[in-house]
Hints:
Elements: H1 3-18, H2 21-34, E1 38-43, E2 48-51, H3 53-58, H4 63-66, H5 77-91, E3 97-105, E4 111-122, E5 128-138, H6 141-149, H7 153-161, E6 165-170, E7 175-178, H8 180-186, H9 190-193, H10 206-220, E8 230-235, E9 241-253, E10 256-265, H11 267-281, H12 291-310, E11 318-327, H13 329-336, H14 338-355, E12 361-366, E13 369-376, H15 379-393, E14 397-399, E15 402-404, E16 407-414, H16 422-438, E17 444-446, H17 449-465, E18 474-483, E19 488-499, E20 503-505, H18 507-517, H19 520-541, E21 547-551, H20 554-558, H21 562-570, E22 580-585, H22 586-591, H23 593-605, E23 609-615, H24 622-625, E24 632-635, H25 637-640, H26 647-662, E25 666-669, H27 675-683, E26 688-689, H28 700-709
Parallel strand pairs: 16-17, 19-21, 21-22, 22-23, 23-24, 24-25, 25-26
Antiparallel strand pairs: 1-2, 1-5, 3-4, 4-5, 6-7, 6-10, 8-9, 9-10, 11-13, 11-16, 12-13, 14-15, 18-19, 18-26, 19-20
Amino acid sequence: MNGSECSGSSVAEAAGMSRDPAFLASLAASLLDDGGMALVYLDRDCVCRHADPHFAAALDRSPDDLIGRPLAAVDHPVTTALGAAIAAIGESSSHGSAPVDCPTVGCDGRRSILSGSVIAHRDSAGATLGYLGTFHQTGDPDRIAEFVTCRDTFVATLLDAAVDGIIVSDRSGIIRSINRSCCRLFGYEDSELIGRNMAVLMPPPFSRDHNRYIDTYMRTDRAKIIGIGRDTLGQRKDGTVFPIHLSVGEARLGDEVTFVGIIRDISERLAAEQRASYLARHDPLTGVLTRTAFLEECEALFAGHRADKAGDVATGGLFALFSLDVDQFSDVNEAFGFHVGDAALKAMVSRVTEVLPPNTIICRIAADEFAALSRVSDGEHARTLAGVLHDRLTASIYADRHWVRLRLSIGAAVQDETVSTLEDLNAKAKLALQAVQHNGGNAVCFYTPEMAAAATRRMMLTLHLTHAIERNELRLVYQPIVDRAGRVRSAEALLRWDHHALGPVSPGEFIPVAEESGLIVPITDWVLSTAIAQMSAWEAEGVLPDRVFLNISGQQFLRGNLTVRLEELLSEHPSLRRHLGLEITEQAAVRDLKVAVRTLGELAELGIQAAIDDFGSGYSSLSYVQQLPVAKLKIDRAFVIDVPENPKSNALVRAAVGMAHGLGLTTVAEGVETAEQRDFLVSVGCDMMQGYLFGRPMVPESLADMVRAQADPIAE
């Protein structure tokens, strides 16, 4: 037999053996017993009919635990993957096998991967008899790392859909995988980063720190930043450095370590935080500091100043604090609109920065109140600055196509040996501001020690005045008002306060305190009810003057409920309406002319007469007098005191009387103390007079006696 015959014979025999049942049985036995693979056989109903020890060990079970049990009854990732592969074979008409690649964790905690395939076992007719699974289990770290970092289509889509950048690196910091967001964030293609060290995405010195951290970790296995999110800096391909938030997680696969970094660009967040921080510390309209930020920065300056003094270092002068308040700023808003008022405030702040020295700290305390802390060489320097500042801020301001002139009060204080904190200096500047406002405002005032005593006195008066009504410490006195013949025709009710400990307190002192504290409203209400009760008593005695005038505060007059309150008080004494008169100041009348006209009109309908008090001390404008429904003008005592010696005062009084008569108004001259003054006033046609010449303020009984003593009855 030659070689070719032998060869042909061997092939024929082999072909016959491949289908020989005995051969196949021995081959299957060798595969099952000595193949070294993990094998499992399931029937067509997915019931386990064979499981070798390798497969059972992958599931942490023995073969006996698996044989005879349905696949679905065994809860394990491998059985889940096996079931998915069988389902895939069933759905495919052309494929008789399906791959399986499943990670497992043994009972000892070791990770491995079970890889292989499931083959459909079919008969000669193609009917499925069962399924054979053949697998290989590996614990190779490189294989495991490759399995973790290699992404299938779903995982790749999921990671690329993430907004944040995601980087997977090994324990040496080498990038193994990167998603699309991270590539866009840093300006790279993924091929440019895979295989490179993470430090390429960091600017110095962060890149050096990262390398040192990796070196330390490789030597000691101690992680310092794992699981801790932190803000740091990243560097793009073009060299741009930008803020990022970095979170690093650690995954251990056996002895191998994989790091997963999540990176977020926080540029917008930081910008928003910076903006919010700026707005929290700065006034949004003018850009100057808020009160809280002002106090913080000034206190820091004071602390540094004290440290310099303690170290015997030249401090560069003293601190001066200027407290600025725009007088009657609401008038600007009401006259021109809030947009003009806002523009005027911004222009005002700009002028403050122009006048005061560099490095001055400015803040906005309230809508129309500001403060500025400056370094000055001495007190004289501060006074010069304050004068220039007032002149500059009260000059005309062009605000949003309107010319505006502001009235400004400035209270100032200069650091001395009694000042150690900003609080001390601020308290003194506020006292100076209160002093200038008490004197009419629109001026500059520097702190003096007497102001502290005055402030203490005002605070004490406010406290005691709160209880003055309930303690029955208030009383009314009445000063007669006479006609040219000297007959008492009316009277003015004047308020007095006799404190139980302080004694008599001057109205010139406690009335401003009452107005500032708001106590003037309940006090005025007490005056109204007390005066009406006294008028009722006089009426019963037949000694009621033609008119009894009461002084009404601007607050009470402009509140809008004065008429209602008077109707309540007069409801039981309707006859007193034509005997009651009210006096209001020029300032109160023009503060809100519309409300003043309406209120005075309502009072006139009730029969209550109104008079303008202290005429000539305020605006003295015909334009407002002719609009107000008043019956009398009371000429201020400041013009009467110099007549007839002062020609200018004579002319002013004569003009006031002529103007009043031209408008059909009665005139009353206040402060008449001499016969010469009386004779001059009579000669110029003044209708009525009031002053010490005719009687000082007196108790009700004394005024009643004066009325009784008159020879002629009072005309009604």
